[in-house]
Write a structure and sequence with these properties.
alpha/beta; Arc Repressor Mutant, subunit A; Rossmann fold; 3-stranded antiparallel sheet; 8 helices; about 50% helix; elongated
Length: about 190
């Protein structure tokens, strides 16, 4: 499975087009209508904020809202979302890059076991979301049916945690275990169910 992140300038251009066409949008709507990941939306917003060009000078912030202010004074708002950001963008991108490489190493899904790999973005966001609810450092984490490799992300981001993966697919487990040993993923263990 290959995944190529959208460059910040391209994400910024899509955000501007969507806000101009649709007006007020949540981050989820930007992801859906723009066909972008949440990280691409964040990179696009950051790009718009940091640029001194016309797009950057048109940004206007309000609590919980990022808006594009047009010269006429009319405002199109881009709601950044109700939920807080899920962690740091740098950590997210580092974990995403790791998981993209990990996906290249492991065997593909076996549909006999109802396996359907999700995008690397989804697996990384799951762990980052869990970390906002409780600390994962030093914990024993169990993953049952880990064909989406969320356990690998947990072991990568929290090397002091003990990560145990259980799955019915011995082929997937041996592939994940070989990859984990190759890149040395701390306390990572797998078990055939």
């Amino acid at each position: 499975m290959t995944y190529t992140p959208l460059p910040p300038h391209a994400a910024a251009a899509k955000i501007q087009q969507l806000v101009a066409a649709r007006g007020t949008l949540t981050r989820s709507e930007l992801v859906f209508f723009g066909g972008m990941t949440d990280a691409a939306v964040q990179r696009g917003i950051q790009y718009l904020r940091e640029n001194d060009g016309a797009a950057g000078s048109q940004l206007h912030d309000q609590p919980g809202v990022l808006g594009l202010v047009e010269e006429s004074g009319a405002r199109n708002h881009l709601k950044v979302g109700i939920a807080p950001l899920i962690g740091d963008l740098g950590t997210y991108e580092r974990a995403l890059k790791f998981l993209e490489a990990f996906f290249q190493e492991v065997s593909g899904p076996d549909h006999r076991f109802n396996q359907n790999f999700v995008t690397p973005d989804t697996s990384v966001r799951r762990i980052m979301y869990a970390a906002t609810r409780d600390t994962l450092e030093g914990k024993r984490l169990y993953f049952l049916g880990d064909d989406d490799l969320t356990g690998a992300v947990a072991a990568y981001l929290y090397p002091e945690a003990e990560v145990l993966v259980m799955d019915i697919d011995a082929r997937l487990l041996s592939s994940v275990e070989a990859c984990a040993k190759k890149i040395w993923l701390g306390q990572f263990a797998d078990h055939h169910a």
